[in-house]
User: Fold this.
Amino acid sequence: MTSRRSFLSLSGTMAAAGAAIGIAKASAQGHAGHGPAAADQEPQRRSPQLTTGTAPSAHTRVPRPPADGAFRPVVTPNGSSLPWIMKDGVKEFRLVAQPVKREFAPGMVVNAWGYNGMTPGPTIEAVEGDRVRILVKNEVPEWTTIHWHGMRLPNGMDGVGGLTQLHIPVGKTGVYEFTLEDPATYMYHPHADEMVQMAMGLMGFFIVHPRNPATRAVDRDFAIMLHAWDVKPGTATPNVATMLDFNIWTFNSRAFPGTDILAVRAGDRVRIRLANLSMTSHPVHLHGHHMLQTATDGGTVPEGGRWPMNTVNVPVGSTVDVEWIADRPGDWALHCHKAHHAMNAMAHDLPNFIGVSQGGDLQRRVNALLPQYMAMGSSGMAEMSQMDGMPLPPNTLPMLSGKGPFGPMEMGGMFTVVKVREGLAPGDYRDPGWYRHPPGTVMRVLDA
Ligand SMILES: [Cu+2]
Assistant:
């Protein structure tokens, strides 16, 4: 339990960060005349939650913002950011829309479209007030455009083919140039044959950092694009006409167990920017911490409008920023809570065999008609995750996947692990391995 003294020193530390102090100080003083219990408990429980979404702990500290004019780069798991060159005071970026091969996880490679060899395309990062020029070379086999999703910009730079610009023909380069007005998490994607071009993977993040680097400074800043694909087992090219029945769900075009883990130091203030250009919403759930939604694609949510949550819904065509203080060491799951979205390729029109006896010679009799039939599922699907080397069609992923320190994890798709660790060296965010639980802190199973 944090003492009143450490709480007050915490709020003192927060003074450096600026915004938090007004609320924290007011509450602490407001309760000064109460009995010891109220003075000790009320400010701790209520005030910091308004700004952090989590009770302060021994790990809580205030992130140091980068030097003036700089920004702390975003981490795009399984991806990267786009370099630029300065030309006459303009930041110039180059994107090439092109066919790419994307490995979703070991065992599955997809014929996708992307930018600069990857899907999602590289994350564009710049600063509020920057003048940017983006050259878009079209190497996909049909015309394209790029829409800078969410930005306030001149109408002729909005990227809607036919409405605000000519399409960029195959083999040609389109030039966009505008000034970044508002800091926020944005996206880029074609506004030309959208259904096909987005289903094939043409999309990316465009992050505009605030001019003042102390604004909403964090220690770790991640960007995860949510997407859905219909790639039938045994094939490699997405079915672009699918409306609802997708079978592969991805974080940055990778499916668990192909998703990068997110390593953070205990006490880090963490932001995850989530973006969704799929055809359905994704309620993304973080284990073990409370977070705040601090921004939408329209910009920062004022502090008084944030509330604690541990599942944030990311609607179609939107971005959402969430932040929290990672003060609970451990291996914490981060995943979409639509259960089918945290699984890999599966058929959805299966009968339910739970409680149906498939013993005796049923398997032999069915195999006479269907040689590949496997009697299973009479007690649920878990038995599948315990079968090593179960035969799969080529180029697809097992439905329930991943091995953890305690056995099969039975997950897939939109799933990864946030690894919160004490003692990571500053800046060393390599995978620290599985969490070693203190003795007596792991669930145990009784014999009966
Ligand atoms: Cu989902």
Remarks:
- Residues 1-55 have pLDDT under 50 and may be disordered.
- The pocket of copper (II) ion is lined by residues 249, 282, 336, 338, 341, 414 (CB under 6 Å).
- The first strand starts at residue 85 and ends at 87.
